[in-house]
Design a protein that fits this description.
Layout (H helix, E strand, L loop, with lengths): L3 H19 L6 H9 L20 E4 L2 E3 L2 H11 L6 E5 L5 H9 L2 E6 L2 H13 L5 E5 L12 E6 L8 H5 L1 E11 L6 E8 L5 E9 L8
Parallel strand pairs: 3-4, 3-6, 4-5, 6-7
Antiparallel strand pairs: 1-2, 7-8, 8-9
Helix pairs in contact: 1-3, 2-4
Length: 216
């Protein structure tokens, strides 16, 4: 059965293959260490633990998935997080991505629209000892206005268009990773940055396939 070391080796290979798109041939030491520390088996449904360290998405119920570890890795890598950054995650899902973020920064806010998944993620994150993650059940496309602005925003489901509320909640100098495109259609992972004047720039990273952003 694959383990975390084998998974990181798989991610390293995929980083090299996709470097022409992403501009990152390898993970930073901080991101690699975060992925090595988080126990993915704690965030998959009972009975799926044998597949936890395979480099592929897994169903977690309610029509949702836990993302492919490589995708978690590259999205996290491109956020260039500092330990003092305040991060918003849209789409808590199983809690795995939130746990990775929590290894890199002191302040993580995560929103999940499906109450059952939000509850399960809260239990899993607490059991793994993560206390620097604040969770909310609601429409992630609206963000978390009372906690804005955020240094970084990561969206773990595909939006047909970039939600304006999330752009507005991004701090000057902030970064947002979001998959954009129709359900079962062509989707693109996009990196958005916002400058001091409030203007945004957008960079296409690579084609992806995500479940749709619900409630947006």
């Amino acid at each position: 059965m694959p383990d975390n070391a084998a998974l990181l080796a798989e991610i390293a290979k995929e980083m090299l293959v996709t470097a022409g798109w992403t501009g990152r041939p390898r993970l930073s030491p901080r991101v690699a260490a975060a992925l090595a520390k988080v126990r993915r088996e704690a965030f998959v449904p009972h009975g799926s633990e044998h597949a936890a360290y395979e480099n592929r998405p897994l169903p977690i119920g309610c029509g949702q998935t836990i993302s492919q570890p490589y995708i978690v890795a590259i999205m996290t890598e491109l956020l260039d997080l500092q330990s003092t950054d305040k991060v918003l995650e849209v789409g808590t899902g199983s809690g795995y991505q939130a746990a990775v973020l929590a290894e890199l920064t002191d302040s993580v806010y995560s929103i999940e629209v499906i109450p059952e998944l939000a509850q399960r993620a809260a239990v899993a994150l607490a059991a793994e000892g993560y206390h620097n993650i604040k969770l909310r059940t609601g429409n992630g496309a609206l963000g978390w206005p009372e906690e804005a602005p955020f240094d970084a925003i990561i969206v773990t489901a595909a939006a047909p268009q970039i939600p304006p509320a999330l752009v507005e909640q991004l701090r000057a100098g902030g970064r947002m990773m979001i998959p954009v495109g129709p359900h079962r259609g062509d989707q693109m992972l996009v990196l958005i940055t916002r400058n001091d004047a409030g203007e945004t720039t957008q960079r296409d990273i690579l084609p992806v396939a995500f479940v749709p952003l619900t409630g947006g």
